[in-house]
Structures
1.
Amino acid sequence: QVQLQESGPGLVKPSETVSLTCAVSGYSISSDYYWGWIRQPPGEGLEWIASIYHSGTSYYNPSLKSRVTISVDTSKNQFFLKLTSVTAADTAMYYCARGTAHRYSDYWGQGTQVIVSS
Amino acid sequence: QTGLTQPASVSGSPGQSITISCTGTSSDIGAYNYVSWYQQHPGKAPKLLIYDVSNRPSGVSNRFSGSKSGNAASLTISGLQAEDEADYYCTSYTYSSTLVVFGGGTKLTVL
């Protein structure tokens, strides 16, 4: 069974950088699929942030591209998200997910909460 | 970003059928058969219900069905059950650089 588990710092100060990790079990991320991050601000809808293909090709939401980096460590079966210069608008639940191209995501993590506050 | 339009809320009684609409453009829903639907219960991660317009992943009840016509897609839930009360999101691949667009979500209330 494919499982994804996010982890992160929880609370981040404005202007700082937040780094999130998604640990994947039950499937080797180097085999196939896209691996992505989606976020959901409190009480709001979903927003796609970025995806990375198992080969390392990355894709970004243009609205966040200047502040986001997605990367993968196949040896650890993990992928990562780095978001710089955070503001209160970045407060959200951050989910990692396995995707089939950019058509749909079939496995999701439970999410990690990021709160931006001084 | 909220590129697709969904009704904010729908409701129905147990046993009834409801349909949630999702309206896009000729750059997303109208251009590709890559519409998917997710169910999200409070405090939980989204769950894939429908992919590629009308396909159900293994384990998803056949009470859930999807369709598309032109620039709009629909999710129909038949035989409503109390556990269907949740938020529902549509998504589509898009021709634009955004790649993925979501609907704003629809809250389903089972009366």
2.
Amino acid sequence: EVQLVESGGGVVQPGGSLRLSCAASGFTFDDYAMHWVRQAPGKGLEWVSLISGDGGSTYYADSVKGRFTISRDNSKNSLYLQMNSLRTEDTALYYCATGHRGFFDYWGQGTLVTVSS
Amino acid sequence: EIVMTQSPATLSVSPGERATLSCRASQSVSSNLAWYQQKPGQAPRLLIYGASTRATGIPARFSGSGSGTEFTLTISSLQSEDFAVYYCQQYNNWPPSGTFGQGTKVEIK
């Protein structure tokens, strides 16, 4: 059974940093590209970032480019999102998801990031 | 950027009735279209990909159709567990990924 468990969310001031983690199990982790997708409170879904299975390619939404960094450790079956220079508009539930074909097969339950002074 | 527009924003349907949800792309996405279901307090769940292929474990009452710019998700006979928000997502420009529609809420009439 595929399991994705996010952690690392919390409350941070504008301009601050946070590192999210996603622990994966139930599938061959390095065979899959992985994504972060976020959802602001009461709003729709927004793709944030993608990393290839070997970690060699990364992509970002324009809204986070230059501030967020996606990475993975295939030896630990883990995905990360380093978020710097956080803004109030980054407040959202952050999901990790599998997706090596462009859509998102499996999703974690999310971790909440709140950016507020 | 390809913009996805879903209609209606809210659909009121009685249990057992048919629900038809629409999704329109601002330019052709071929058949690179997925549908997700999201219930309150839960993560989204993949229903359909490739515009019409049901994901693993998805009941046959869910069906997708369309190509190019016009897509439809049909729920043939609504069950109580189907009341949720549904999102479409195009992935024609993969990688990196694609854009979502704003969602259609299916509520009990």
